[in-house]
TrEMBL record:
Residues 6-183 form the Formyl transferase N-terminal domain. It is an enzyme of class 2 (transferase). One of its GO terms (molecular function) is methionyl-tRNA formyltransferase activity. Belongs to the Fmt family. Residues 205-297 form the Formyl transferase C-terminal domain. (6S)-5,6,7,8-tetrahydrofolate binds at residues 112-115. This is Methionyl-tRNA formyltransferase. InterPro entries: Fmt, Formyl_trans_C, Formyl_transf_N, Formyl_transf_N_sf, Formyl_transferase-like_C_sf, GART_AS, Met-tRNA-FMT_C, Met-tRNA-FMT_N. It comes from the Bacteria.
Amino acid sequence: MTPPRVAFFGSPAFALPVLAAIQAQFEVVLVVAQPDKPVGRGLKLTPPPVAARAAELGLPLAQPKKLRGNASFEALLRESVADVAVTCAYGKILPASLLEVPRFGFLNTHTSLLPAYRGAAPIQWALIRGETVTGTTVMQTDEGMDTGPVLLQEALPIAPQWTSLDLADALSAQAARLIVTALSEVGHLSPTPQDEALATHAPMLTKEDGFVRWGEGAAQIVNRSRGVAAWPQTTAFLGGARLKLSGLSRAEGQGQPGEVLAVSEEGLLVAAQTGAVWIQTVQPEARKAQPAQLWAQAAGVSRGSRFDLWQPAAD
């Protein structure tokens, strides 16, 4: 079989290893990424990492603002004569009219063992919910949200110390391997429908997802911190002041939720509903991060001080 010509749809740095693996073995006839966006204090218009890499490599590049009803982009995809399209963290929903353009359709690399964790943030929610295994799925894209039949799937154990940044790196490498296998066998893989009864969801994170819930157990607090490490990061409040926390780990300890049990070179020891949490680093708003002990001494925080309790609003 002649190697398929590939159109690649992706945007963030996560997708770069997948693009590199495809380009090493197949002809990439078109790269599609999100439009450039203002970045930083100067709001400089900046291309997403995949668009920047495509430009460096001299690959044909498109950055449509929308896909639905975009006849000119659909014509461009047809003119590329791609046999198959691959999406990896592209960030836009594909209309049905596009899915039918390549003769082998669209393949999507998704960072979970579907049907678990469908949606925008599977890496983050797997960590927040304390999963010890996740993985990568290559699926045939349909009109639903990660509902297409599974073509390939591979599990990945989650190391206890991994944050969302570490897990993303591991899954990106895994996705790069799996998509090469899928493309090498495109048209000959047996699609397996997903079991809807087993589906779970991983919605896009909000800033509040990073807020510490001291009324939860220590393990839950640490898992949430691992999941939000990239964004929005772990946030706590003390006397109404917003603080970014990092370097959280479980510990023995007992007290009222949010109560400071100790201040030492190890950091701050804070009670959870069950157990306690060590905090290594604290960053007050508009200031640099600093060792928790130094911050506590300067802020007058000592044993018996209490972090504010925060609860999510009822649905």
